[in-house]
Amino acid sequence: MPRAKLPPDDVRHRRDVRLSNNEWRSVVAAALSAGLPIGVYARRALSGRRIAARPSATDRAAWVELSRVVSNVNQLSHAVNLAIKSGEFSDAVLSPLPALLEETAAQITALRAEILGIE
Q1: Continuous segment of H or E residues that includes residue 36
Q2: Considering the domain boundaries, does residue 3 fall inside one?
Q3: Is 51 a domain residue?
Q4: Is a pLDDT exceeding 70 seen at residue 24?
Q5: How many Cα neighbours within 13 Å face the side chain of 30?
Q6: 22 and 61 share a domain?
Q7: Global pTM?
Q8: Are the CB atoms for 72 and 100 separated by under 8 Å?
Q9: At a CB cut-off of 8 Å and minimum separation 6, what does 66 contact?
Q10: I need a surface site. Which of 17, 31, 65, 107 has the fewest CB within 10 A?
Q11: Alpha carbon 5 to chain centroid, angstroms
């Protein structure tokens, strides 16, 4: 089955652009850094869209750690919501909250420092 026709403004046409060797090397390096094909990178750059660099291994590790912290915050939020809905504001429910909040805040601070490259 053939693909549906694009609206006239969305049809892509080949366009030529003249670049020096240095300019071309910069475009290729930027596209590789972003993990994008050169054509996709060029379209995004020319249209003013934000182009994020591909995360390094350190950034990916930080992302995984951030996921863990967010999961902890989500679990904490879920526990508090259950306590509120059930009306069970006992010490058993509320007493671990300050320690969990402090631990989570420390994890977030450490993760932020890691991402920013601060020891």
Answers
A1: none
A2: no
A3: no
A4: yes
A5: 17
A6: no
A7: 0.45
A8: yes
A9: 111
A10: 17
A11: 33
Tell me what pLDDT residue 21 has: 96
Q: What is the residue whose two structure tokens read 């366009």? A: 15
Whole-angstrom distance, CA of residue 29 vs CA of residue 81: 48
Query: Would you say 36 and 51 are in contact if contact means Cβ atoms under 8 Å apart?
Result: yes
Both 81 and 42 in one domain: the answer is no
Q: What residues make up the domain containing 24?
A: 8-46
Maximum Cα–Cα distance for the chain, whole Å?
A: 71
Cα of first residue to Cα of last residue in the chain, in angstroms, is 57
DSSP 18: -
Based on the fold, state whether residues 64 and 95 are members of the same structural domain. yes
Which whole-number Å values give the CA distances from 47 to 41, 60, 118, in the listed order? 10, 28, 35
Cα distance between residue 36 and residue 30, in whole Å? 9
